[in-house]
Design brief:
7 helices; single chain; 84% helix; elongated
């Protein structure tokens, strides 16, 4: 194992982690009750999901290849890559649009009617899944380029670690921006919704 390979894996992990970073930034902006424990839960969930999806993509191709042959495995991987990208696009667009509309409605309410968004375990897990689903395509790529299963697990560990750290950074930045907004969660929600919509477009384009 050379440092060049480790560096390549690190940059792969960094690229995959940008989705999680963006959503973590949104969480830091919109959740009004974030603390250290909840921050680690969010970062851990995003890291786990981001590492799990490439592994699923890798083994999907491996299973199809074993059952139906190498060409079928490659074709299944290519189809899966396309499908998961568009699924991720649709879900992120839906979530971002919903957040944007709800925040605009909240912005028009009287001060005494306004409510802040609270931390939700179910929502965090769902966000973790949505931001990581397109990473299945990375697993397909790994299958094409790797033959050593130990190297696959090294990818998983590094992707998990990098995503965990980037998610913590995103949460921290989100909370700092929220302080600048002085508790105006409806504006933060609008910003978060726009971030998710942009992320949806980026998932499809790249």
């Amino acid at each position: 194992m050379t440092w060049q390979i480790l560096l390549a894996i690190f940059f792969l992990g960094l690229g995959l982690a940008m989705d999680a970073f963006s959503v973590a930034l949104t969480d830091g902006l919109t959740y009004s009750d974030i603390n250290k424990k909840k921050s680690f839960f969010i970062a851990g969930t995003f890291g786990f999901m981001q590492a799990l999806m490439p592994l699923i993509g890798f083994w999907l191709v491996e299973i199809v290849k074993t059952i139906a042959g190498g060409l079928a495995g490659e074709q299944a991987g290519q189809i899966a890559s396309i499908v998961v990208k568009w699924v991720a696009f649709g879900l992120l667009l839906l979530i971002g649009g919903k957040m944007l509309v709800e925040s605009i409605i909240e912005l028009r309410k009287q001060p005494e009617e306004k409510t802040s968004k609270k931390f939700s375990i179910k929502e965090v897990i769902f966000y973790g899944f949505v931001t990581a689903i397109d990473a299945c395509a990375a697993g397909v790529t790994l299958h094409a380029g790797l033959s050593n299963i130990a190297t696959v697990w090294l990818h998983v560990v590094i992707i998990l670690t990098v995503t965990f750290i980037m998610s913590l950074i995103g949460l921290f930045l989100g909370k700092q921006i929220m302080k600048l907004l002085k508790g105006k969660y409806e504006i933060a929600g609008i910003i978060g919704g726009i971030i998710l919509i942009i992320l949806a477009v980026v998932v499809v384009l790249f």
